[in-house]
Amino acid sequence: MLQYFDPNKDYGTPAQLSENLITLEIDGVSVTVPEGTSVLRAAAEADINIPKLCASDNLEAFGSCRICAVEISGRRGTPASCTTPVEEGMQVTTQNDKLARLRRNIMELYISDHPLDCLTCPANGNCELQDVAGAVGLREVRYGFEGNNHLHAEKDESNPYFTFDPSKCIVCSRCVRACEEVQGTFALTIDNRGFKSTVSPGQKEDFLDSECVSCGACVQACPTATLMEKSVIDKGQPEHSVVTTCAYCGVGCQFKAEMKGSEVVRMVPYKDGQANHGHSCVKGRFAFGYATHTDRITQPMIRDSIDQPWQEVSWEEALSFAASKLKGIQERYGRESVGGITSSRCTNEETYLVQKLIRAAFGNNNTDTCARVCHSPTGYGLKTTLGESAGTQTFDSVMQAHAIMVIGANPTDAHPVFGSLLKKRLRQGASLIVADPRRIDLVKSPHVETQHHLKLRPGSNVAFINAMAHVVITEGLEDQAFIADRCEEQAYQAWRTFISEERHSPESTEEITGIPAAELRSAARIYARAKNAAIYYGLGVTEHSQGSSMVMGIANLALATGNIGREGVGVNPLRGQNNVQGSCDMGSFPHELPGYQHVSDDAVRARFESVWGVKLDNEPGLRIPNMFDAALDGTYKGMYCQGEDIAQSDPNTNHVEAALRSLECLVVQDIFLNETAKFAHVFLPGSSFLEKDGTFTNAERRINRVRKVMPPLAGLQDWEVTVALSNALGYEMNYQHPSEIMDEIASLTPTFSGVSYDRLDELGSIQWPCNDLAPEGTPTMHLESFPIGKGHFAITEYVATEERSTRKYPLLLTTGRILSQYNVGAQTRRTDNQVWHDEDVLELHPQDAEDRGIVDGDWVGIASRAGETVMRARISDRMQPGVVYTTFHHPASGANVVTTDNSDWATNCPEYKVTAVQAVKVNAPSEWQQRYNAFKEQQLGLLKQARDKAPA
Question: Does pTM surpass 0.70?
Answer without folding.
Answer: yes
